[in-house]
Amino acid sequence: MSKIVILTGAGISAESGLGTFRDEGGLWSQHRIEDVATPEGFARDPELVHRFYSARRQQAAEAQPNAAHLALAQLEQHWAGEVVIVTQNVDGLHEAAGARNVLHMHGTLGGALCAACAHQWQAPMEMTLATTCPACGAQQARPDVVWFGEIPYHMEEIISHLEEADLFASIGTSGQVYPAASFVQEAAANGADTVELNLEPSEISRAFGERHFGPATEIVPKWVEGLLTGSNA
């Protein structure tokens, strides 16, 4: 196999201390998704949304990549073909682990976006209503994160990679968020082998030809080692 396309979700970063939508006691459990992860929520209470994402930005800045992130970076470095990581995560831990070929379909916590002119720039650690766009000067800065109801980034490029993939892997995803949940069907329709690596079966687990369950820090390094040594079945 020459081209591997890997989709990662919140589950790969959970062991780095970054909570998922469904974790109890984390940042997400304190707010409704509709209030902090939609354009409508930002329009209703931008100050709340800025506080929420500033907290997430600080949390992500303090997090360290775990063994699963490091294993994928190693795969990218040593695989003879191409490895593309498509991530739903906004935390930047793939890059912190050393990965370079990463597509952030949901944006990044480290980015800021001007709602007035669409300029993108590096976000300060704490964004507020007073944060101004360096391009147009408008005080309409928002996190450069794709919210529910918005179109993910890089979709044409992602679909192109899925059409060319020899192997598609989904790691740490729930299978509940589209369009990412449809990627396995897209890859399989074009002849790719498919594998799910997850803590437990996802909503779309049966769509995969191969499945491995357990903590990401255990199953991902083992899977990568198998690919690099040729011992995977």
TrEMBL record:
Comment on bound cofactor: Binds 1 zinc ion per subunit.
Listed name of the protein: NAD-dependent protein deacylase
Binding site residues for substrate: 53, 56
Catalytic reactions on record: N(6)-succinyl-L-lysyl-[protein] + NAD(+) + H2O = 2''-O-succinyl-ADP-D-ribose + nicotinamide + L-lysyl-[protein]; N(6)-acetyl-L-lysyl-[protein] + NAD(+) + H2O = 2''-O-acetyl-ADP-D-ribose + nicotinamide + L-lysyl-[protein]
UniProt cross-references to CDD domains, sorted A to Z: SIRT5_Af1_CobB
Cofactor(s) in the UniProt record: Zn(2+)
GO cellular component assignments: cytoplasm
Positions contributing to Zn(2+) binding: 114, 117, 133, 136
Positions of the Deacetylase sirtuin-type domain: 1-230
Lineage: Bacteria, Pseudomonadati, Pseudomonadota, Alphaproteobacteria, Rhodobacterales
Entry EC number(s): 2.3.1.286
Principal location listed in the UniProt entry: cytoplasm
Keyword field contains Cytoplasm: yes
Keywords (A to Z) from UniProt: Cytoplasm, Metal-binding, NAD, Transferase, Zinc
Positions bound to NAD(+): 9-28, 88-91, 172-174, 198-200, 216
